[in-house]
Amino acid sequence: MTCAEFEILFCDYVDGGLQGLAKTELEAHLASCATCAQLAEEIQGAVAFIGRAEQVEPPAELVTRILHDIPSVRPKKERRSWFGRFFGGMKDAVLQPRFAMGIAMTLLSIPMLAYLMGINPRQLSLSDLNPAKIWVTVEDRAHRVWDHAVKYFDNMRLVIEVQSRLKQWSEQDQAQQQRLQQQKQQQEQKTPTAPKERQK
Q1: What CA dihedral angle connects 179, 185, 189 and 195, to 10 degrees?
Q2: How far apart are CA 175 and CA 167, in angstroms?
Q3: Cα–Cα distance between 51 and 43 in angstroms, integer?
Q4: Residue 120: which of 143, 137, 142 has the closest Cα?
Q5: Are 18 and 26 in contact (CB under 8 A)?
Q6: CA distance 188 to 191
Q7: Where does residue 166 fall: left (phi above 0), alpha (psi -120 to 50 degrees), or beta otherwise?
Q8: What tens digit of pLDDT does each residue of 25-80 get?
Q9: pTM for this structure?
Q10: Between 1.10.10, 3.30.420, 1.10.443, 3.40.50, what CATH number should domain 1-76 receive?
């Protein structure tokens, strides 16, 4: 056994948790190594000293002082008015981080939605905040978006139809030219060529 292994296992040996072969090897190393024997003697002396120390009882008022200093455990003896009792729970809920973050995100999303609907918040007047006017504006905007989408789809369909017709006509024109060339070649093959004049 090495000195490093001895240092690792010695705490278990002192506690009485080391058994069998490991215990006999540790005791053999302890008998043969003077450095480890001195270390073991010092550790056993420290453990014996700690064991002789008497147990200290905490003062009686310590628990009371601790409970008094913890705000969540402190009993609520104060009397609150009906307003405080009614809105006190709401105040605690509003001050929660998730609720505050939700309010912040809502306040940030309102200008974005207004921008997407084409409303400039700086030009708003009190009459613009009328729910009926807001509904009419939103409905008008939705109809315009729908009309633009339908018009785009119809235009796209028209363009595709024009392109397909042009392609079809060009293919027909090419096929007709090929037929004319074939007919011309057939006619040239059928007509006999004039005999060449004999050279004198």
Answers
A1: 150
A2: 12
A3: 12
A4: 137
A5: yes
A6: 5
A7: alpha
A8: 888 888 888 888 888 888 888 878 777 777 777 787 887 888 777 765 445 555 66
A9: 0.28
A10: 1.10.10
Q: Six-digit token pair at 71?
A: 């705000």
> What type of residue sits at position 7?
E
**DSSP designation for 18:** -
In sequence order, which ranges of the chain are alpha helices (DSSP H)? 3-15, 20-32, 34-52, 60-69, 82-94, 97-116, 131-190
Q: Where are the domains of the chain?
A: 1-76, 96-125, 130-186
What amino acid occupies position 2? T
Report the distance separating Cα 3 and Cα 26, nearest Å.
10
State how far the Cα of 138 lies from the Cα of 133, in Å rounded to an integer: 9
Q: Give me 193's structure tokens.
A: 């060529």
Residue pair 37/65 in contact (Cβ under 8 Å)? The answer is no
Could you tell me which of 56, 6, 71, 55 has the C-alpha nearest to residue 32? Answer: 6
Longest Cα–Cα distance of the chain, Å, equals: 151
Query: pLDDT tens-digit profile of 154-200?
Result: 788 778 888 888 899 999 999 999 999 998 888 888 776 555 555 44
Of the candidates 141, 149, 140, the residue with the CA atom closest to the CA atom of residue 117: 141
